[in-house]
TrEMBL record:
UniProt xrefs under CDD domains: CYP71-like (cd11072)
Membrane topology: Single-pass membrane protein
Lineage of the organism: Eukaryota, Viridiplantae, Streptophyta, Embryophyta, Tracheophyta
Example GO molecular function: heme binding
Record's keyword annotation contains Ubl conjugation: no
Entry-linked Gene3D superfamilies: Cytochrome P450
Cofactor(s) in the UniProt record: heme
Family label: Belongs to the cytochrome P450 family.
GO cellular component, one term: membrane
Name under which the protein is recorded: Uncharacterized protein
Cellular localisation: Membrane
Binding residue positions for heme: C449
Entry keyword set: Heme, Iron, Membrane, Metal-binding, Monooxygenase, Oxidoreductase, Transmembrane, Transmembrane helix
Primary location class: membrane
Organism of this sequence: Spirodela intermedia
Length: 512
């Protein structure tokens, strides 16, 4: 039989003749799509920016030049930066289905058991189930244990300050350390049901190593084919960190399985709530979520890390910033303490029922969250190609929403850089529930903070108690205007300089 070669068929001839033209037209169509503006980069490398230019302040400066939506290239990766309330609304509300994935570095993927958690899982059915579990079971107001740990740990902090003040009057207290231990204690007890003295140091060491690994620069995140070379030697450290977490939490899970609590017990901790969803555990009668959804030990470990990372530094840095802003603004401090004296009285500590009567204190907390959002840059990723404000945003683009810059946008806020809590007393003042895009310290839409209620309760209770129980003076005759208000950028944006202040008891009752 005689075979005919490709060159002899007319169809093949046209196919090979037109292929280069089709490819060229396709390539032109893709490259001619209008990308957002941004600094011109070096070929193959992209934008060369210092780490200062990549934090919330540096990106806000770039936004002054390139606008509310701009693009940065780094090697094979793209990042769009959103810096205006209207662009945030487009991303978090109008196109939220496209913008609700999360970017993940190699360290994040490994340390979250390949995104077995909620915070780093991409948007989809798995994330929806995890979110339901968190909202309905773990962070629900009905689960009293977390709320009880806020009260217990706040009381313990007050006792510690009172004891220090009684032992050495006029000695200063490291407020940063105090509030960080307080927030850690709250989340640790809420998660494991253990008192903060049991095993906390070991767990905090694991968290610190996770935090370092999350923040470590890894060239393979920008040039993926370099990953197998492990150029920074991170693999061994990541394996050791995850093994340490496995050992720690497996032991806690096993102890909880030996002594299970009834699901209607008001004193369940987060591990109690999650182990009933473990594949090995039969579903309780009538619980639809339990019957339809099973999780693994890895899911439990990854969720616990979400809660520890999401709930500790955020709450601690917010408490510290409120204290610092009020110490810098003595008139506002006086007004808060006056409100506390009238609503609570000077013969007892604050309790939960008092919080609703502390409207000026709530204004101070909102104004602090505006000026110092604990998570200044929200990290999202596009799931597919999208048009935004007339620009083409390709799939798998990292999206950074600069909450810090948006909350200081001069077109949305008068005297945007000043601490003026009274602005939130107005009836039409924005709230932080997510529909006022000029003020989104808890995010907005699908990926917004599921721990907002618990976080706010901890924040309001801690600030109210510390300001009601004590007067606070700056040490060594320091004037309020001398307080350094700069921040550092990591997972959150805490104060760069630790806040130190001298407490003196204010109440007629005993605090110890
Ligand atoms: C003052 C306190 C807090 C602030 C300001 C805060 C803020 C935020 C923000 C801005 C986000 C990201 C939103 C986005 O990406 O669009 C977030 C997510 C999250 N927060 Fe909070 N948070 C606080 C407290 C808490 C607490 C106490 C917990 C847990 C007990 C928590 C757990 C989480 C989790 C798990 C996520 C990831 C949600 C997801 O990806 O679906 N947060 N938070």
């Amino acid at each position: 039989m005689e075979m005919s070669g490709p060159s002899e068929s007319p169809q093949s001839f046209w196919f090979f003749a037109l292929l280069p033209m089709a490819l060229t037209l396709g390539w032109l169509a893709v490259t001619r799509r209008r990308l957002p503006p941004g600094p011109r980069g070096v070929p193959f490398i992209g934008s060369i920016l210092s780490t200062e230019q990549l934090n919330h302040r540096g990106l806000a400066k770039l936004a002054e030049r390139y606008g509310g939506l701009f693009l940065l290239h780094f090697a094979a990766t793209r990042t769009v930066v959103v810096s205006s309330p209207e662009m945030a609304r487009q991303v978090l509300q109008v196109h939220d289905g496209v913008f609700s994935n999360r970017p993940a570095t190699a360290a994040i993927r490994y340390l979250t058991y390949d995104r077995s958690d909620m915070a780093f899982a991409n948007y989809g059915p798995f994330w929806r189930q995890m979110r339901k579990l968190c909202v309905m079971k773990l962070f629900s107001r009905r689960r009293g244990e977390s709320w009880a740990s806020v009260r217990d740990e706040t009381d313990a902090a007050v006792r510690a300050v009172a004891a220090a003040a009684a032992a050495t009057p006029e000695a200063s207290v490291n407020v940063s350390e105090l509030v960080f231990n307080l927030a850690k204690g709250i989340i640790y007890c809420a998660a494991f049901g253990l008192s903060s003295s049991e095993g906390q140091d070991q767990f905090i060491a694991i968290l610190q190593e996770f935090s370092k690994l999350f923040g470590a620069f890894n060239v393979a995140d920008f040039v993926p084919w370099l990953a197998p070379l492990d150029l920074h030697g991170l693999r061994k450290r990541m394996e050791a960190a995850r093994a340490a977490l496995d050992g720690f939490i497996d032991e806690i899970i096993d102890k909880h399985r030996v002594n299970p609590k009834a699901t209607d017990d008001l004193n369940t901790d987060m591990v109690d709530e999650m182990i009933v969803f473990l594949g090995e555990t039969p579903a309780a009668d009538g619980d639809e979520l339990q019957a339809s959804f099973k999780i693994t030990r890895e899911n439990i470990k990854a969720i616990i890390m979400d809660v520890m990372f999401g709930g500790t530094e955020t709450v601690a840095s917010a408490i510290e910033w409120v204290m610092a802003e009020l110490m810098r603004s003595p008139e506002d401090m006086k007004r808060v303490q006056q409100e506390l004296a009238e609503a609570v009285g000077l013969d007892r500590k604050v309790n939960e029922g008092d919080i609703k009567n502390l409207s000026f204190l709530k204004c101070c907390i909102k104004e602090t969250l505006r000026l110092h959002p604990p998570i200044p840059l929200l990290l999202h990723e596009t799931a597919e190609d999208c048009e935004l404000a007339g620009y083409h945003i390709p799939a798998r683009t990292t999206v950074k929403i600069n909450v810090w810059a948006i909350a200081r946008d001069r077109s949305a806020w008068e005297d945007a850089d000043s601490f003026k809590p009274a602005r939130f007393a107005a009836a039409e003042a924005p709230d932080f529930k997510g529909s006022c895009f000029e003020f989104i310290p808890f995010g907005s839409g699908r990926r917004s903070c599921p721990g907002m209620q618990l976080g706010l309760y901890a924040l309001e209770m801690a600030v109210a108690q510390l300001l009601h129980c004590f007067n606070w003076e700056l040490p060594d005759g320091m004037k309020p205007c001398d307080l350094d208000m700069s921040d550092v950028f990591g997972l959150t944006a805490p104060r760069a300089v630790r806040l130190v202040a001298v407490p003196s008891p204010r109440l007629t009752c005993s605090l110890i």
